[in-house]
What does this fold into?
Amino acid sequence: MIRVQIGDFDVGREIEALTKGKTSIGGVVSFIGNVRGGGDGVKSMTLEHYPGMTEQELAAIEQEANKRWKLEASLIIHRYGKLLPGERIVLVVTASAHRADAFAANEFLVDYLKTKAPFWKLEETAQGERWVEAQTSDDNAAKRWVKS
Amino acid sequence: MKLLYFAWLKTKIGKAEETLDLPAGVATAGALVDYLKTRGPGFAEALKDRRALRVAVNRRSVGWDFAVKPSDEIALFPPVTGG
It folds into this structure.
């Protein structure tokens, strides 16, 4: 399942709704991405995205994860709009009969969405606004999953 | 065709979207960018380095040699930074 939304999400409720009644699930892995404040002087962050393509890309990577691993359920929620340090940006939940599939698929989904889903971060600092640049480390993380 | 600009491309070009008649002789996404660069200083600045850009045709990421046609929705944007 894919959701792209402005509002926050309740992690507990989302996991409960996703897994309820599915007794084949033996393990659930969740990843929560937050807006990092810290030493960068970031006061807030605005996430822009490409409506339509975002949902399509997220659905495609979710489908790919389901091809590679045996998942009983999965969920990706990604927020957009203005967010403050400490706020949640993204939730990725994977559930499987045995934990290995859920762990691997979760890491794959996070790595892939960072390099494929059309989101862009604008950071607001005391010095003004700046668009966050793509990280080579994120590209390298995603490349680990490319099948040779 | 419909053109969409995201992130700093939008700022430099000065608009988020526009409709354009596909000029004769422009057959690929790369050729389209070369044409757009001639439309003013904002375009020239935003599109000067193709390596800093990505393109999607009808909401699918493609390469610069991808064929474009008048009915396409073409989006230009920097590498993505979500997650």
